């Protein structure tokens, strides 16, 4: 096919064949994600660029889409996080200074593919000194951790107060633990024994190490009395914010670990969806609860860029330690999801795309 682009005020053509992509045609287990070699290459539309992907991030939300927990229209190309170089630009994107060859990262649906059409407003220029693998890792997990530690708590926690973060041994909450410390919070982290080495490097003030659940992406949250430990560490006060991406297994722990007028921030379902609970559960401490998502904390380009600039700045200054655990070739699409869901990762998991 032919993609029209505009670079330096001149039209040029970029010819690409049908692309290789990991596609879901029927929801199901990891093997529902099938690699196809003749999926239609996206058409360049006004205001867009075409990105030739080098990496795609693998996130738990991708598994929720694949399983149908968060429904999407079928068929769809998996993923919503990518990084690579600009292959073609629309007239509108060119006028914003975007050029073919620019290194970029982004979050839009359809990143498990060789090429993705991305609105120019969603592009994050990757600064010199930040690798494309790290930049790709930043877009969903890094920006999620940023809004969780800067905004989702609605300023109900102040510097010097306690924050409980579950699952700091892998993924988003590795970022969140470090960012919470950068914001001056005192942090209690939970992790499995198998990820304690990673968790200990994050600067948590207290680390609660739990037994592992074989084959699962979360820890055994009954192996330690976490609430008692939290109350002991905080002198009976509790935590003004709890950041919880685990879900079903930690809901009670999270609510019971709150301080008066604290906030339960539930953002993930690693152990299963959070069950419905009566709002009266919150009355004992006049507590708050929120179920946020990244799109509502990057509502326009100004907010997106502001968050990304702070994260990239911390990376360049060496204040954030980002662990890229493993990069699967795209041909092993199912294996990437299986690895993530089995709880094996100690950091970001990616697809490397030729």
UniProtKB/TrEMBL annotation:
Stored SMART domains: PKS_ER
Highest taxon of the lineage: Eukaryota
Keyword terms: NADP, Oxidoreductase
One Pfam family, short name: ADH_N
Keyword hit for Disulfide bond: no
Protein name: Enoyl reductase (ER) domain-containing protein
Enoyl reductase (ER) domain location: 28-351
GO molecular function (one): oxidoreductase activity
